[in-house]
Structures are given as C-alpha cells and as structure tokens.
Amino acid sequence: MSEQTNFFIGRKYDLESKSIIDEAVTYDPSDLTTHMFVTGMTGSGKTGLCVTLMEEAALQNIPAVIIDPKGDLTNLLLHFPDLLPEDFKPWLDAETARRQEKSLDQIAQETADLWKNGLASWGLGEEDLLALKNAAQFAIFTPGSTAGIPVNILSSFAAPDLDWATHQEALREKIASNITALLGLIGYDNIDPLSSREHILLSNIMEHYWSRGESFDLTDLILKTQEPPFNRLGAFPVDRFFPEKDRFSLAMKLNNFLASPSFQAWITGESLNIKNMLFTKEGKPRHSIFYLAHLSENERMFFVTLLYGAVESWMRGQSGTSGLRALVYFDEILGYLPPIGNPPSHTIMLRMLKQARAFGVGLVLTSQNPVDLDYKALSNAGTWMIGRLQTDQDKERLMDGLQNASGSINRKEADHLLSNLGKRVFLLHNVHEKGLTLFHTRWAMNYLAGPMTRNQIPALNDLAAAKTVETQDKTSPEMVPASDQPSAPVSKQTHTITKDPMENKRPVVPQEINQFFLPNNQTLEAAAETFKLSLPAGTDLLGILYRPTLLAQSEINYIARKYNVSAVRKKCFLVENGDGRMIQWEKHENPPVESNKLGKTPMPNASFETIPAWLIDPKVLKGFESDLVDWLYREATLKIPVNESLKLYGNPDLSETDFQKQCAQAAEENHRVELDKLKETYEKKLDSLENKLEKEMRDVDTAETRLNQRRLEETGTHAELLLSMFNKRKKSISSSLTKRRLTAEAKSKLEEEKLDVEVAQKELDSIGTELQEKMKELELEWAKKAQDISDVSVTPYKKDIYIETFGIGWLPYYQVKINGRITDLPAFH
Predict the structure, then answer these.
(1) 425: which residues sit within 8 A by CB, 6+ positions away?
(2) How far apart are CA 231 and CA 212, in angstroms?
(3) Which whole-number Å values give the CA distances from 704 to 508, 623, 746, 759, in the listed order?
C-alpha cells in the first residue's frame, strides 16, 4: 500500500447484498485542491473516514492544519506499530472494563487483537504503521491553554512579509478577518465590515500600521482605539464618526479580554506561523492539530478565524500550483459556515473555498448536521462523501445541495443510495470522476479511542514527541537614549527586560483621564552623579521605564486692587501614593513643568510600571482635583511686601532687599520734601530775627555813637566849669550838670540797646536749635517709615484657580544593569 500515490480509503460496497466488494476505492489527492465535504450522523463512521484521509495524506507527505473542536482528531497520534496491549492500555476507558466485568489488561489485549486483525483484513500491518509514524510530525496545539503546545495569537497582528502595494487587496481581506474575529470574541454579532463603525475603526488602525510594514499587538490596538493615528475616517473627523466616549467603551471591551488572567495563555507558545505549522525546520511534514474543545464558542470562533487568516496570508506568499500543497481540515463546521448570518469565520472560509485551489491548498470540511450549512459556499467543494443521515429532512437538504454543486446527479439514484446507507458506508461524489460510488471505509491505522479531554493532551504530545518549531530569533529594537550621543561608559548592547510581557506594555487608561509624558531631559551620567553612582565599563542600558504618578499643575491669578497686584503663579504636584482619602498637597509640591515640554506619547520601546487602581479611577481623581482647588484656595496665598506708612506695595516678584531699597528711596524723597518745607518755614522766622538783630545792633551802634558824643560834650563842659570857677560864672555849672545828665541817658540807652541785641541773639539761637531738632525728628520719622515693612497675604478667588494639567504623569527612568544589578535612575529633572 505504501507504494500507492492515491489515497486508499476503502473498498466498494454492494448495497443489495450489504457486503464489501474486493475492489479498492482510491482517491487522487490532487482532487482535494477542489476541496472536500464530508457529512454523516453520529455513528456513521465519519470520524474514522476522516482519520484515514489524514493517514493517507501523511503517508503521501502532505502537511495539514487540522481544526478539532470536539477532540476526536487527537486520535491521529495513536498509531502503535507494535500493536502491543500496553500501547493501547493508557487510552482505554476503565469504566468500560468495569461494566464488562473485565480487567483493563484484558480489554487492552482484546483491543490490540481487534486492531491487529482489523488492519490485516485490509491488507495493512506493522510496516504501514511504522511508515505512518515516520511520515510526519504530529502535534496537538491548545490555543488559550498550556495543556498542549500553546499558541501565541499576537503574531496575528504582526505585519505580514508581503509588499503592501502588491498584495493590498489580500492584506485588507486578512485585516477584515482578524478584526471580525476579534470583535466576535468580545461579543459583537453579525458584523458587517461596511457598516460596523467598530470594524471600520479597528481595520483602519491595523491598515495604518501594516501599510507601513509596522507590527503591533493587542495592547497597541487598544491604545490606538482611544487615540487613533489619523484624524479622519472618510469625510468625517474621527471624533464625529466615532466619539471618544464610545471609542473608550470599545477599548474597555478589548481590555477586558486583555486583562483576563486566562489571556496569558493566548500570548505564549508557538506563533501562528503557518510555514512552521506545516513543516519542521528539517522540512518534514507536520500534522498540526488545533484542539478547541476547552474553548467557549466565542473563543473558538475567534481562533478559527485567526487561523484561517494566517493560512490565507501564508498561502498568498506561495506560487501557484496545480498540485496539492497542504490540507486544512475542519472537523465540524456547524455554526462557522451557516446559510444565514455572517459570523467572523464565514467570509474567510468562503474566500478560501473560492481561491485556495490556485495555491494548492485543499479544504476538508465536515459536519454531522447537513441542514444548517451554506450550500452555496459548499458548491465550491468538488468532492462530497456522505454517510448515514438521521432524518429525511437531512437527506433532502443534502441532495439539494449536492445537485446545486454538481448539477448532473441522478436524484432518484442518490435518494435510494442515501436511504440505505449503513455504518461506515459512504456515498462518494467526485466532480473529477463519473457517477456516484458507494464504498466501505477501510480500517483506521490509528486507534480510535474517541474524544480526548484536555488533561490527556500532554500525554498524547509526549507519545508523539511533539515539540514546537524554533522560530527565527528576534532581537529587541535598540533603545535610544534621550541625548543625541550615547553615554560613554555604557555599552551599546541591549537586553530584553525580564518581566511579565504585559508589564512592558503601556497600560490602558480610561479616556477621561489625561496622560502626560515628562521629558527625558537628563543624561544618564547626570542621573548617576545625582545618586553618587559610578558607571563602570560594561554598564548596560536596558531601556526607559515609565512610572505613573499623579501630575497636577495649576495656574493661579492673584488680583488685589488695593495693593495694585495682578500676578500669575503656577504650582506643580507629583503624587505617587494617593491610596489614602486625603492628599497632603504641601508634601508633593515640585517645580512647575513647562506645558509644551509635556509629551502625549512615550519614547519608543519603553516599558511601563503597572498603574495603581486609584490612579485610573475617574471618580477618585475627580475628587482629588476638587480637593486641590480647595487646598489652593486656603493655602496658596501670595505674600507681598507692603509699607503702609509710605503707601508702598511691592511687586510679588520683588526681593525683600529690593523692596527695602525702594522704601528707603521713597522715604528719602519724602524726607527731602518735608525737610524743604520745614526749612522754608524756619527760614522766614530766622530772616525776621536776623533782621531784628541787625536793627538792634544798629541801634547799639547809634547809642554808642551818641554816648561818645555826650561824653565829649560832657568833657568840654567840664573844662568850661573849671574855667568858670576861676571866673566865678554860675552859668557854666548849670551847663555841666546838663551834659552829665545827657551822657548818663545815652549810656543807659546803649545798655538798653545791647540788652535788646542779646535778647534778639538768644531768640535767633533758639530758633536755630529748634530747627535742628525738627530736622532730626523729621529724619528719624522717615527712617522709621522706611523700615515699616510687613507682608500681606493675597488669597485668590476660586474662579481664578485654573487646573491646567491633571492626570497621569509618566516619569521616565533609565534602567541600567550595573555589575549584574538592575538600577533605575531618573531621566528627568
């Protein structure tokens, strides 16, 4: 049998005698390029038939991707060339042995004998089993679980290795499939890519990056849902087409999936690289079985659509061929290709049915329910294998579909054959062959143990020595430091930060919460110097880490007309711990940050710390913002220097020394004015007194002159008296006495005038002294006024407190490895 090029699937069957005819039924594998549909009720032998098809494909070195929603196709790993009882024993049902009142060893022996004899009756033996075992590598993949080989779905968002300009139609189809699958996963039904705004938005985001050859992941998609990388969708602005609030609601639905603990199983393991699923590194064919029994309906739909999309993307990169290059086998398509409705899988499965032939990819689709299927889509299948059906309705529906597919069948003959099918007997219709063929399926080389549970998957993979195919090494993009030149002592070698993958991703933040990225404005050397750290040779710069904090910055307008104050002040606060009910704002004040230095996007390839719950709670932050305004109203008073004596009010920006100088200058000027007034007042008094003194002094001079004259006259009279005494004349004596009297009067007058001068001089001296005292008092008074300085607090009105920045502030840190130890150093100051 191993020398055949066609599939050996059974022998012809005679319906009248209900017996097997010794005439082999073979199937040309190249006919599978026009696809195959297999149907039959439970117990019809459909699973056994399909297992034999996959066995034949493996023997012909045809690789296959196998979708197994129920767990039946896991039996493809149960091939035992030695046919020993102990080979079968682990896969037997102990409950069956108990019911038959037999030991498990007895059942194992009976099963081994049954399989050995069954294979022999079809001309198969150990040689064929060994050939099957060595023909391909068999492996079971479990998306969303680590029971088997896990599957990393993030590769579905990676930009394909196809030129956008050349393959944009095909790539747009893949984008549509991926987005449809994703939306189906989060609960959207009957998605129309032309009318669903969710689909339009997400597809445009994915196209934006893929058209540039840029990959991204689910986290990036969630973030860009909130902040799309474009401004318009069609003729409308993004915010009008899909308002920000609604976009955030969509982002939250996506994030619920991302945040689920079970999501971690979706981002580990082997990527959806179809080339690696079909061939080992050495080029050996693989039969990759995707076990989906453990998934929910939405998860199954999501993965099936992604898988078909990955197959299609790989297929588009292949050259055309008329031969069979690979198989894609789907064991139960009910719900995935319905006659009505548009589940995510429908579009891509229909497209594959129409287009995969040109690339040598054959589809095998099966179902045990032939009613609820899209027969228009199935009309693209050139081969139909039909087993026993459950109801006449199933039969009629199937014949309608078969007639539409071929158009040349004898409906009466088909009805007769379908009505009398037995177990493991199938009706074969192949557009490449004439007529209908009735055949009995051959014995499966693999042990048909029935559906396997998830707990049995590890043992199955161990049995087949299944392992992942090592994918091409990927290096992390080099981290670029903030400065233009790399730090001298830091090596250029970069390393991936060893953390949970999600910790490196930018967290999702509610759309009503603003985010700000503080500038990376400090070199690594400066940061190290601040912390007294040295950077030895070999220090590795691992990258930039962003830490979340509450960033609040206010602008306060102070207006006080009395003090002629109109000033603006900014206050900045960085709060890292706001778990408590109150924030002591005074403990978190920092120098203000220039608003134009705050970025909206992080540095490339940065990692992020987890945001604490309070910092992404809009209600909590709203309360803190209100509390900050109240605190600023109470505490953020503006101190201004005032001098009430001088009626001087300092500018808030004026230093204490400068205000003192200003007061001294004003006091000096006022002192000078007052001094001039004082001097003017006293100068009049002094002038009057000086004039009086001068007059009195003139009077003294006059009195002295007169006295001198009188004395001369008296002297002359005295001489006459002496002569008269000798002449005995009385008149002379009388004249002498008169002159003496006049002299005495003149002398008295002189004394009086001198006394007046003395009084005038004293009065002048007194006024002069008084002036000096007044001048001294005036000087002291203005000196005191110059020092009469105090501070006045100006409280802002609440309406003049403006919160210009409030939200998550991302603080950048350098992550460096120094002597094997990772250290974080602030990249900002």
Answers:
(1) 13, 45, 387, 388, 438, 439, 440, 441
(2) 17
(3) 116, 102, 8, 18
CA 337, CA 347: separation in Å to the nearest integer?
Answer: 9
Burial 180-217 (b: 16+ CB within 10 A, else e): bbbbbbbebeebebeebebbbbbbbbbbebbeeeeebb
Distance CA(56)–CA(428), nearest Å, equals 17
CA distance 161 to 210: 10
Which residues, other chains included, contact 240 with Cβ-Cβ below 8 Å and sequence gap of 6+? none
Q: If DSSP codes are grouped into helix, strand and coil, which group holds residue 794?
A: strand
Nearest-CA neighbor of 378 among 429, 434, 324?
Answer: 429
* Residue 495, number of CB atoms within 10 A of its CB: 14
The stretches of 542-655 forming alpha helices (DSSP H) are 618-635
The long-range contacts involving 588-597, CB below 8 angstroms and separated by at least 24 positions, are 592/553, 593/518, 593/551, 593/553, 593/805, 595/553, 595/804, 595/805, 597/518, 597/519, 597/521
Kindly list the structural domains of the chain, giving each domain's residue range(s) and its CATH number in brackets, ordered by start: 1-78+123-150+274-470 (3.40.50.300), 152-268 (no CATH), 490-637+800-826 (no CATH), 660-787 (1.10.287)
Q: Find the radius of gyration of the CA atoms of the chain.
A: 54
Decide: helix, strand or coil at residue 815. strand
Picking from 810, 809, 803, the residue whose alpha carbon sits closest to that of residue 624 is 803
Q: Which two tokens stand for residue 404?
A: 């539409």
Using one digit for the tens of pLDDT, what is the confidence trace for 488-518?
333 333 333 334 434 567 888 887 899 999 9
Could you write out the DSSP letters of every residue in 572-593?
A: EEEES---SS---GGGGEE---
Question: How is residue 644 annotated by DSSP?
Answer: T
Angle of CA points 691, 694, 698, to nearest 5°:
140
- Enter the tokens of residue 393: 């309705």
What are the tokens at 419? 């009505």
- The yes-or-no verdict on residue 470 having pLDDT over 50 is no
In this predicted structure, what is the pLDDT of residue 726? 58
Q: How far apart are CA 135 and CA 287, in angstroms?
A: 10
Element (H, E) at 28: none
Task: Report helix, strand or coil for 157.
Answer: helix
What DSSP string runs through 252-295?
HHHHHHHHSGGGGGGSSSEE--HHHHHB-TT--BEEEEEE-TTS
What distance in Å separates the CA atoms of residue 184 and residue 660, rounded to the nearest whole number?
A: 75
Q: What digits encode the pLDDT tens for the residues 755-789?
A: 777 776 777 777 778 778 888 888 888 888 888 88
For residue 716 the two structure tokens come to: 């002359």
pLDDT digits (tens, 9 = 90+) for 12-49: 999 999 999 999 999 999 999 999 999 999 999 999 99
Is 286 in contact with 277 (CB distance < 8 Å)?
yes
Query: Exposed e or buried b for every residue in 44-72, given b needs 16+ CB within 10 A?
Result: bbbbbbbbbbbbbbbbbebbbbbbbbbbb
CA dihedral 255, 260, 266, 269 (to 10 degrees): 120
Q: Which two tokens stand for residue 563?
A: 């003090």
Other beta carbons within 10 Å of 369: 17
Q: 414 Cβ partners below 8 Å, 6+ apart?
A: 399, 402, 427, 436
Nearest to 6 by CA among 60, 62, 50, 45: 60
User: What residue type is assigned to position 620 of the chain?
Assistant: V
The answer to whether 808 and 515 are in contact (CB under 8 A) is yes
Three-state secondary structure string covering 177-242: HHHHHHHHHCCCCCCCCCCCHHHHHHHHHHHHHHCCCCCCCHHHHHHHHHCCCCCEECCEEHHHHC
Angle at 718 between CA 714 and CA 721, to 5 degrees: 140
